[in-house]
Design brief:
The chain has four helices and six strands; from the N terminus they run H-H-E-E-H-E-E-E-E-H. By secondary structure, the chain is α+β, with helices and mostly antiparallel strands.
Length: about 130
Amino acid sequence: MSSPTAPRSVVENYYALIDSGRLGEAVAMMTDDVKLTFANSEPVLGREAAQASLRAVLDRCDEILHTVVTWFERPAADGGTEVMAEIRIKYSLKNGRQLDLPGCVFATIDAAGAFTEQRLYGDLTPVFAE
């Protein structure tokens, strides 16, 4: 069994918080200077900016559910861990649409179990379509 700070547990706990509407707690799992990039958008720096970026997507949803499909990890030079996860995201949008979209996350998690970087890839066009 993996420990709560094992990288996969960190990622799964993070998404469980987001999926349950606890964005503030999820963002608390990031370092103060976290770098977050959504697909082809410009990166944002810091927890506050990361929270605003995530909020822009979550505000369109009544529910969201992330599932890790495939997992890879490797040690980072600084003692943390670099991870790559293929994910599926189910969106129940406020406009009544239901979506099930693929995505991919590249992240760096420090030795204390906090995200220092997240690069989130997926086509969010259907989420923002009216």
